[in-house]
Amino acid sequence: MSGENTCAIFFSGGTDSTCVSALMAERFRELHLLTFTRHGISYAEHSQKAAQALRQKFPGTRFVHKIISTNRLFEYTAYHDYLRSLLRYGYYMLSSCTFCSLSWHARMAAYCLDNGITHAADGITRELLHYGGHMDANLKAAREFYARLGIEYENPVRNWDIPPSTQFINKITQDYDTPQMSDPDKLGRTTGRYLYEHGLMPSPDIKGSRLDQAMQIRCFDFFLYNMMVFWLQLSRKDYGTFEKDMHELYRDKLSQFEKLLNEYKKDGPGSRMARLLEK
Amino acid sequence: MIKVLRAASAALICGLALLMPYRLRVLYGKAIGWLLQLLHMAFGWLARRLLDSLGIRSASELMRDNGGSK
Fold first, then answer.
1. Which of A150, A159, A179, B55 is least enclosed, having the fewest CB within 10 Å?
2. CATH number of the domain at A3-270, out of 3.40.50.620, 3.90.230.10, 3.40.50.300, 2.40.240.10?
3. Which residue in the set B10, B25, B40 is minimally distant from A232, CB to CB?
4. Which residues from B are below 8 Å from A172, CB to CB?
5. Which residues contact residue B5 at a Cβ distance below 8 angstroms, ignoring those fewer than 6 apart?
6. pLDDT tens across A142-200, in order?
7. Could you tell me which chain A residue has the CA closest to the CA of B15?
């Protein structure tokens, strides 16, 4: 199958990534659903349910679903040249959610290069904007990173409406003064509604429900990150400054990966990047 | 005052995490999360006890019986 007819998707098995997969199934004949996992992330196998549902809904599209470990990449992102990074970024070195995003981009890029795939997409919305990987400036940096590697990266549901979170733990560790949630009375197009209307979900809003939890990976690494962001950083600086700091960190780490990936393109199995890649 | 206490406790908890290697940091973060969830679970347990003692059924039980989805 030609790379032009193929798209790779960051696939957690949740409503957002499943919705993007459904959207991409109408444009591409082959979709590679990549579920990344590492220490701190559980239930990666839950994503198989949504993958199977997509296969049944779109019989004309070939779905390749892979669960890939990113432990080495994550550890590299979080700990490489640690002392220098700690002195420069301080508490931001606990940005596990941001480091996860970066390690996944690196792994996605390597996968696309290995398989001749020139399109990648994910289900990032305007939820959780305090995550480095969800910020506008960092998404732009990521798109440019992919473009320089010859890959088009898109976020098709970025500006869709999002229902408010029902998670208690988010309410006590996150500050909802930051503008994140759509007005629940005015919700229009959401990923959940799209899936419901296309027969892929039993109801239009399952976020936070047991069903939602049972169909995707679960991460418990965000507690420390949220504490660092909301209780520490945002207690002493405004949101704009926090975003700028996060962007500096993100760009720094992304440029390191770009160097490694260019080496990987040239030297293949003998490169530093090859040693960080797991199946 | 609450903000100052939160910032101070976050500085300490996060400061310790910065000294930890990868796997230990993940376990530590899980432990923190578990402790925070404990408050939520304790509240739920107390609420159930109070409702039971008053003979009142909870909203989720009523929803389930009426065919609620969540």
1. B55
2. 3.40.50.620
3. B10
4. 36, 39-40
5. none
6. 999 999 999 999 999 999 988 766 555 455 555 544 444 555 556 678 898 899 899 88
7. A91
